[in-house]
């Protein structure tokens, strides 16, 4: 079989490239121009980028085969995630792989800027031994204000506690417990934080809300001689405001790894000796890049095999353990979804999903999108993916409702119940996992069963009387079709009944037609492929 193709448009660790090569054809084009990438992107199933490649609508529109954009790193502000979602392209990143390096770089920038390390080094290498201009300040006993107490902000907090600093933080989106856990005093506003902080370090994502959040007004409220660090994203501290602050000596030093415009060359902030700059090196350690490269390679390989990957940006975030637990239920939901259009040929107007039992305490949105993906696949093929299944359902006018129940209403511990409506009728199906954790159909339109949702499944309606089931099974055998499993069910004795038969091979149309003529068989048997 032809191998799937990935293009890597920026430098990632060799370990990542080697891992990719075990399963994929890899085109490693570090620094490829935008024009060339636009030209050839339609040949690839996956694209791996860092923070430079702009993944926008123009690129995605041309990327006809693209299934996944892998961000070898954390920030995704160079990727238009909404566009990717609309086109069904998965976006995955590696948010935990470079956080330690970014936190350490923050501390490094803080220390080197307040101790004039870079400036003194330059001076001494220039041939002058002089100690007077470089007197710095200590961290000990001072107050650091952390804006954004997420992954990196919290690591910075715990590390600075070891310097005997008072740590205060502003992050309106996290619980009080998180402040306590990381030994940070909670500030109710950014204004409150800057008034108290001797040093300010920012660790938020860059978005509309945070761009220029530290501007002239906020710096105006800060202590005289405040010192700042930005190892998150350029522009969170407005560069123009910082420039003015440095000129007026309101701000005494800055450590900057990121800039409003990158690559940053001739940035006016470079003129200040008290400003230490690095060219976006926060994630650039051997350890972080190895982790990032291997992690993104693993995710891309998985995604191209149709598996769910842990750090999907355009799906709800899940913990690794939660994802592992939910995986077989994701398969179950997808297979249940897959049944409708194989049985009915009329458009769906509404889907109602119920998750009961302990699964309901998890992030069940992934189960809903898996069901919708399975539902739409027979009609939309591989245009539908986990990331756009909800959008596609909406586009087709399907109303989706899902809800959770703590207790399963049946003897099965966990249950997924689906009701799919067209304008007149409904298909009701229910599934769970077998002991071996394989998908099991346990009810269909009120008929109870226990049938493996795997391979070929024949659904046959019949009259509930003797000499119907036996001849049907014999007829299947006469056609060379082996029965792997069979369940019969009825609601009321003597009325209509149902056979659900797992068969080892495909039953062709003429055979289905022939089977429908057998005595006691109602309508044409339906073959499901799952
Ligand atoms: N310099 C580098 O090389 C480098 C490396 C890794 C990450 N980063 C950047 O570091 C930043 C932080 O990354 P992370 O992994 O810690 O992210 P994260 O998502 O774990 O944490 C961000 C925190 O910011 C908070 N936040 C969001 N908006 C806020 C606001 N308006 N005010 C205050 N807090 C707000 C969130 O609640 C969250 O707790 C990101 O911008 C990321 O791109 C840079
Ligand atoms: O967001 C990130 O992961 C960092 O900013 C690193 O970006 P990079 O991969 O371009 O070094």
TrEMBL record:
EC number: 1.1.1.95
Molecular function in Gene Ontology: NAD binding; phosphoglycerate dehydrogenase activity
Phylogenetic lineage: Bacteria, Bacillati, Bacillota, Clostridia, Eubacteriales
PROSITE patterns with a match to the protein in the record: ACT, D_2_HYDROXYACID_DH_1, D_2_HYDROXYACID_DH_2
A single GO BP: L-serine biosynthetic process
Organism: Syntrophomonas wolfei subsp. wolfei (strain DSM 2245B / Goettingen)
Reactions mediated catalytically: (2R)-3-phosphoglycerate + NAD(+) = 3-phosphooxypyruvate + NADH + H(+); (R)-2-hydroxyglutarate + NAD(+) = 2-oxoglutarate + NADH + H(+)
Highest taxon of source: Bacteria
Gene3D superfamilies, alphabetized: 3.30.70.260, D-3-phosphoglycerate dehydrogenase, domain 3, NAD(P)-binding Rossmann-like Domain
Keyword RNA-binding part of the UniProt annotation: no
Domain ACT, chain residue ranges per copy: 457-529
Role this protein plays: Catalyzes the reversible oxidation of 3-phospho-D-glycerate to 3-phosphonooxypyruvate, the first step of the phosphorylated L-serine biosynthesis pathway. Also catalyzes the reversible oxidation of 2-hydroxyglutarate to 2-oxoglutarate.
Keywords: Amino-acid biosynthesis, NAD, Oxidoreductase, Serine biosynthesis
Any matching Pfam family: PGDH_inter
Pathway note: Amino-acid biosynthesis; L-serine biosynthesis; L-serine from 3-phospho-D-glycerate: step 1/3
Family under the similarity heading: Belongs to the D-isomer specific 2-hydroxyacid dehydrogenase family.
Protein name as it appears in the record: D-3-phosphoglycerate dehydrogenase
């Amino acid at each position: 079989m032809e191998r799937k193709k990935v293009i890597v448009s920026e430098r990632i660790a060799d370990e990542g490239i080697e891992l990719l090569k075990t399963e994929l054809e890899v085109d490693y084009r570090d620094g490829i121009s935008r024009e060339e990438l636009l030209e050839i992107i339609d040949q690839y199933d996956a694209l791996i980028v860092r923070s430079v490649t702009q993944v926008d609508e123009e690129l995605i529109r041309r990327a006809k085969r693209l299934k996944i954009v892998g961000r070898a790193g954390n920030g995704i502000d160079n990727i238009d995630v909404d566009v990717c979602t609309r086109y069904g392209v998965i976006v995955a990143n590696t948010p935990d792989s470079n956080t330690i390096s970014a936190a350490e770089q923050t501390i490094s920038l803080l220390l080197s800027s307040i101790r004039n390390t870079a400036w003194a080094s330059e001076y001494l290498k220039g041939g002058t031994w002089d100690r007077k201009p470089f007197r710095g300040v200590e961290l000990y006993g001072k107050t650091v204000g952390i804006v954004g107490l997420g992954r990196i902000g919290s690591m910075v907090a715990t590390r600075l506690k070891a310097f005997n600093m008072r740590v205060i933080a502003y992050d309106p989106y996290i619980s009080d417990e998180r402040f306590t856990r990381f030994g940070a005093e909670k500030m109710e506003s950014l204004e409150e934080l800057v008034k108290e902080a001797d040093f300010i370090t920012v660790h938020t994502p860059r978005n509309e809300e945070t761009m220029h959040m530290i501007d002239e007004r906020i710096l105006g409220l800060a202590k005289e001689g405040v010192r700042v660090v930005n190892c998150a994203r350029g522009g969170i501290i407005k560069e123009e405001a910082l420039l003015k602050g440095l000129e007026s000596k309101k701000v005494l030093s800055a450590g900057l790894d990121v800039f409003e415009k990158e690559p940053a060359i001739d940035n006016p902030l470079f003129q200040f000796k008290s400003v230490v700059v690095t060219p976006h090196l926060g994630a650039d350690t051997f350890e972080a890049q190895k982790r990032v490269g291997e992690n993104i390679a693993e995710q891309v390989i998985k995604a191209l095999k149709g598996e769910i990957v842990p750090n999907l940006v355009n799906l709800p975030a899940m913990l690794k353990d939660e994802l592992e637990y939910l995986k077989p239920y994701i398969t179950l939901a997808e297979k249940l979804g897959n049944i409708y259009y194989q049985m009915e040929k009329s458009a769906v107007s509404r889907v109602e999903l119920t998750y009961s039992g302990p699964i309901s305490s998890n992030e069940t949105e992934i189960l809903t999108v898996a069901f919708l993906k399975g539902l739409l696949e027979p009609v939309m093929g591989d245009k539908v993916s986990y990331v756009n299944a909800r959008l596609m359902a909406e586009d087709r006018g399907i109303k989706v409702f899902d809800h959770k129940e703590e207790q399963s209403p049946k003897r099965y511990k966990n249950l997924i119940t689906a009701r799919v409506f067209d304008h007149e009728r409904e298909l009701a199906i229910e599934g769970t996992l077998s002991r071996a954790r394989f998908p099991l159909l346990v009810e269909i339109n009120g008929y109870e069963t226990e049938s493996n949702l795997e391979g070929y499944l024949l659904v046959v309606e019949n009259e509930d009387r003797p000499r119907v089931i036996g001849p049907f099974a014999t007829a299947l055998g006469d056609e060379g079709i082996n029965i792997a499993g069979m369940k019969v069910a009825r609601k009321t004795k003597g009325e209509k009944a149902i056979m659900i038969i797992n068969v080892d091979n495909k039953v062709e149309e003429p055979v289905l037609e022939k089977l429908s003529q057998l005595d006691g068989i109602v309508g044409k048997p339906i073959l499901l492929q799952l």
